[in-house]
Amino acid sequence: MSGKPSKADKKIAYDAKLCQLLDEYSQILIVAADNVGSNQLQNIRTGLRGDSVVLMGKNTMMKRTIRVHSEKTGNNAFLNLIPLLQGNVGLIFTKGDLKEVSEEVAKYKVGAPARVGLVAPIDVACPTWQYWARPVPDLFLPEVLDLTEDDLVEKFATGVSMVTSLALAISYPTLAAAPHMFINAYKNVLAVAVATEYSFPQAEKVKEYLKDPSKFAVAVVPVAAADAGGAPAAATKEEEKKEEPAEESDDDMGFSLFD
Which CATH class is domain 8-108? Predict the structure, then answer.
C-alpha cells in the first residue's frame, strides 16, 4: 500500500512538470494572483483549457527549476523570468494568441472585499488579477496586448514617413523615398528643358502651354438662373426689350407749341 507522497517527491514532480512546460511552450504570461480563490483559479484553468496551462507554485521552487533547466539546456532566455517572480504569482504557458489569452483571463476578474492588512493596488478598486505578458525571451508590458491592427498600421506609417523624410534630406535612396526622388528628378529635368532648347516628349506639352496658354483655355457657358421649381427663370420684359432711342420732344428743338 503506497503512502502519501513525501515533500521531496512533490518537489521532483513539480520540477519535472515545469521543465516539461519550458521545453514545450515558448510564450509565458506571468500573473499576480493575490486574493484569488481556488474556485476562481479553477474557472480560469477551465477557460484556458486547450492551448494554455496554468502553473502555480512557490517562487523559490520556480526560480530553482528555471536555473537548473537553463544550465542543462543552455537556454538562458528563461532566466529573464526570475526577477519577475515576486509576490504571489503564477505562470500561464500558452501556444495561443497572447491578446486572446489575456482577455480570457480578464473575464474572471472579480471584486474583492477589503480586509485588514491588504493594500489596494489602485485608489478605487482592488482587482484580483493583475497580469503582464512575458514571452520568452523578449519581455514587454501588458499595454502591448491592447494594441490593435490599426494601431500597428499607424505606427508603421509614421515610421515610413520618418524614413522617407530622412532619406530625402540626405539624398539616400530607399524604397519609401524612391518615388519622391523620381518626381523631384523629373521636376529638375523639366525645369532645364523649359529654360533651354533641350526637350523630351514629356516636356513638349508643358512648353507648348507656356508658349500659348490660350490653347488650353476652357470655354465657360453661362447657365440661366433657375426659379424655385428648378426651371430656368424667364427673361424679364426689361431684359427682352431692347433699348430704343428716345423721341425728340419739342423742347429739344428750342421752342414749344405755346411760344
Answer: alpha beta
